[in-house]
Structures are given as structure tokens and as C-alpha cells.
Amino acid sequence: MSKILLKHVKEIVTMDAARTRFQGYSLLIDEHKIAKIAKDIEVDVDEVIDGTDYFLYPGLINTHHHFYQALTRNIRAVQEAELFDWLKFLYPLWARLTHEAVYYSSLVAMGELLKTGCTTSTDQFYVFPKGQTENLIDEEFRAAAEIGIRFHGCRGSMSRSVKDGGLPPDSVVQAVDEILADSQRVIETYHDNRPFAMQRVALAPCSPFSITEDLLRKSIKLARSYKVMSHTHLAETLDEERYCQEKLGLRPLEYMESVGWIGDDVWYAHGIHFTDDELDRLADTGTGVAHCPTSNMEIASGIAKVPQMWEKGVQVGLAVDGCANNDASNMLLELKIAYLLHRQFHGVHSMSVEKVLALATNGGRDILNQPEIGSLEEGKAADMFLVNTRRLDFAGGVYDPVSALVRTGNTQVVDLTIVNGKIVVRDGQLVTIDEALVAEKTNEISRQMVLSQ
């Protein structure tokens, strides 16, 4: 590891508890930590970066994703479909996933995230095609280590197929014992519970309409025995709500509570259709929610009550969700979408630029229980990104760094991204992989999956 000095930064947005900002200060990175923030720092380092023209921000945290869906983006046939029909169309395509497909799609999704200021990402991988299941999720952890992103990999699963009253076909469903055995293997192989960990594991059965009660009960028990977190989709659509009431006799959150899936070691993706009483229950138990505004808008699922969640004390983070119902892994664009969506729907005072940046930094930190990320403070992780204020797309609007980040810009690609003290994006380009080669290979795999009969 090395020492990097960011010298005389135009403005540092720390996102600490006091929302401190520093103008003209320097920041010293020593190995994987922020060693010092001060007006002047004089020390021998391996690299000095002149920050005079740059705004500096803490790395963004993506709390829900499906990397493999980068292979099935922009498919016209499902661009007007709601969730259940969307899934039914895509499950057969995803049944063609291979180890190579998972590896390259992960590089694409993680690369997009890093280029848009995201330094930590989760991913829920839940499609294990028959004949391709052995060590399939390992390709995500391999790709994460190579590209240099901080990664919380969620070993997902589906155990209820169409023949058992679920939504997915048999070709992508596994037996409960098979799921649990591999979940334990993944935890023991990849989970690092130490501070500043680069890789952690969560267990993540997919959703109420694709998993059995037996799997839910055994999965949460296994997760808690290893002290890892648990994650699933919940309250995403009214179709899901009707399914739970008709098939299970309970509302989605009632059902999850009945099988032990609530608490500060659990977070849900979406959370659109919670009632006010249910939001109180989430707040009381410390259960988190990953807000996915672009995805929710794309398939017309509804709008999460994020301002009410904040008022009640629910932990909320930001997420891009899967590439096939977002068509991008762009965290900066997600900031802008969240900002505009809630102002339009909940009123002009419901969402500020500071709140939406907090959602993508402090919120993700709290949901994932990794306190050393999500802000720029001495002793915390050296995860951050910089944007050059001299770029054309910021011209005439550099008076406030947070407003500039959320409201302006035309590419959303940052200039420099640092994760765990290492530069992974320089001058807007990934330095750890060959972007052109990865794009070419991914397009080839995508064509084989989408166009094969």
C-alpha cells in the first residue's frame, strides 16, 4: 500500500455528523485509511494530487443490485411490462447464465459504479441455472477483487417454482438443502467481519413469490449463526402484496415477521407499499430499506415513502437495482432521480441535495453496519471520489459542491475514484481492467444469451 496526498482541495464534503466542509484543505491517505485532514500537510508520499480545482466527496454506497442483468439490458419486449410479466420473460434468458457470463457482467456493473462515484456495492445474485450452479457466485467475488470495489455479496436463492405456486421456472430453482449448503460455503470462503473489510457476505432469498417458508426460516437462522446480514425484496409491487395475502394469508411484512425476518441485521429492497404502521415497525426494529427510484419508475411499481421513513427513523439507503430494470449502474444519476422524484411527488421541501447525498453515503453505511465507510474523517476508510470543477458541464454552477454533484453534469462520470486507498478510476477511466475488452466480451455473451433459441 502507499501514501497519497490530495493537496489543497477546492472543497471537501465530509458528510460527517456535523456535515463539515473544508475549503482549501488537504487530505492524507496512508494505506487504506484517511490519516489526516488539515490546512497544510507536509509529508513524504508516493503520489501528490493537486486538488485546487476539485470537489472531494465520500464514496457512494449502493445497497441493492443484480450485476448479471447487465447482459439483458434494453430489451424492447419488456420495456412496457410490470414486474411479474417482466420476470416471466427474463427468467428463461437468465437460465443461460454461465460462469463467464457472471464474471463479465459483474465487471461491467461494478465498473459503471466505480466510474460514477460508488466505492461500495452490494449485489443479490439469486439465479442458479441447473448444470451451472457450482461456485457460480464466486465469479462476482473474483471480479470485485480484480476491479477493486468494496463488495457485500448477497448469496441469493429461489426455492419455489411455478409447479409449487411460485413465479420462476424449475430451471432456475434450487432445493433448500442445496441452497443452505452453498450459503454456508460462501460465508466461510468470503465473509470478512473485520473493520475495513473489502468483502462481506449476506444471505438473500429472492422474494415472497419465489421462496418457501422453510428456506426463509433456515436461512435467517444460518445467517445469524454466522453473524452475517440478510436481505430480500419486499413490498415492491401490489402484485406481490396480493400474492402474499392470497397465498400466505398475510401482508408481506407480516409474513416476514412471522418467519423471523426483521431486525437490524435485515434490509429490504424497495419497500414501496409499507403502511405507516409498518414503517413504525421497521423503525422500532432497526430494519433497513434500499430505495431504488429509477427501477421503481421504470416498471411503474410506485414511489417509496422515503420522507416519511426519515421522519420515523427508518434506516434508508440508495440503490440502482438491477441493470435490466434500470439499464444503468449509475449512482450519480440515481442521486438526481431520487432528488427530483420526491420533490415532484412529496413536495419541494421533501428532498434536498444534502439529504439525497446522505441517503447514498450515511444511509448505506448504517444499513450495511460498516461504520468506517460513508464519510470522510480521520481514521475512516479511504473511499472517495473527485470531480473537476473546470469541466464544461459544471460551468456557471460551482458555487456549492453538493448541488453541483446532484443537479448538474452531463456525463456523471467522475474524474478520480479511490477505494481502500487505491486509485481505481483516473481521468474518468478504470485503471484495473481493460474497458474495451470487457465491453466487447460482454456484448458477445449477451448476444448468445438473448438471441439463442
Summed up:
This protein has 453 residues and is of the alpha/beta class. It has helices at 83-94, 99-115, 138-147, 176-190, 213-226, 238-248, 252-258, 276-285, 293-298, 306-312, 331-346, 353-368, 401-407, 435-451; strands spanning 3-7, 11-13, 21-22, 26-30, 33-38, 47-50, 54-58, 60-62, 118-125, 150-157, 199-205, 229-234, 266-270, 288-291, 315-318, 384-388, 416-419, 422-426, 429-430.
Give a description of the structure.
It holds the Pfam family Amidohydro_1. This is S-adenosylhomocysteine deaminase. InterPro entries: Amidohydro-rel (IPR006680), Metal-dep_hydrolase_composite (IPR011059), Metal_Hydrolase (IPR032466), MTA/SAH_deaminase (IPR050287). GO terms for molecular function: deaminase activity; hydrolase activity, acting on carbon-nitrogen (but not peptide) bonds, in cyclic amidines; metal ion binding. With 453 residues, this protein is of the alpha/beta class. The protein has two domains: 3-59 and 373-428, Urease, subunit C, domain 1 (Roll); 60-368, TIM Barrel. The protein is built from 14 helices and 19 strands. It has helices spanning 83-94, 99-115, 138-147, 176-190, 213-226, 238-248, 252-258, 276-285, 293-298, 306-312, 331-346, 353-368, 401-407, 435-451; strands spanning 3-7, 11-13, 21-22, 26-30, 33-38, 47-50, 54-58, 60-62, 118-125, 150-157, 199-205, 229-234, 266-270, 288-291, 315-318, 384-388, 416-419, 422-426, 429-430. Strand 13, helix 8 (276-285) and strand 14 form a beta-alpha-beta unit. Helix 2 runs parallel beside helix 3, helix 2 packs across helix 14 and helix 4 (176-190) packs parallel to helix 5 (213-226). It is globular, with a radius of gyration of 21 Å.
